[in-house]
Write a structure and sequence with these properties.
Radius of gyration: 20 Å
Number of strands: 0
Number of helices: 7
Shape: elongated
Length: about 150
């Protein structure tokens, strides 16, 4: 027998973790983008950088990388908004939306693709796998709670 109250509490915790991690990601992404932009537009800072490091910074602001950053920021904002909506749905015992967890998995997939296109990092890959498991387990808990009515009605 499943304790739906424990599942609900677990989903509340997982959902709050999704919210907090995505807010942190959003803040750091904006800071990173702004600092890259100002670094490349400041001649004094550019003069102190070695040419190799300056090339890496210029590559990070290529049109493709800017496009990927904008897509990633959009996904992060959507995940935050939908996860906040799910937070109130969990508390009110309404049907939970799976979309923030699917978008999270899509965001992870986008990050992994970008990692393979640019430079592979084992630590980044491990972090992405941990985040993917967070989204997956959140989805499973939401599915369990949404399926509760089907079991009760049967």
């Amino acid at each position: 027998m499943i304790s739906y109250e424990k599942v609900r509490q677990s989903l509340k915790t997982l959902n709050m973790t999704v919210i907090v991690l995505n807010i942190i990601e959003l803040v750091f992404s904006v800071i990173l983008f702004v600092s890259l932009y100002f670094t490349l537009n400041n001649e004094d800072i550019k003069a102190t950088l070695p040419p190799e490091q300056l090339d890496v910074l210029k590559q990070s602001l290529s049109p493709f990388n800017i496009f990927m950053m904008v897509i990633s920021l959009g996904l992060t904002i959507a995940i935050i908004v939908l996860a906040f909506q799910n937070r109130s749905k969990i508390a009110q015992d309404f049907e939970i939306n799976y979309m923030p967890y699917f978008l999270g998995l899509g965001s992870i997939l986008l990050s992994i693709v970008q990692m393979f296109l640019n430079q592979f990092s084992l630590i980044s890959f491990a972090i992405n796998l941990a985040l993917a498991s967070l989204y997956f387990f959140s989805y499973l808990k939401a599915k369990t709670l949404n399926g509760k009515e089907d079991i009760i009605d049967a």
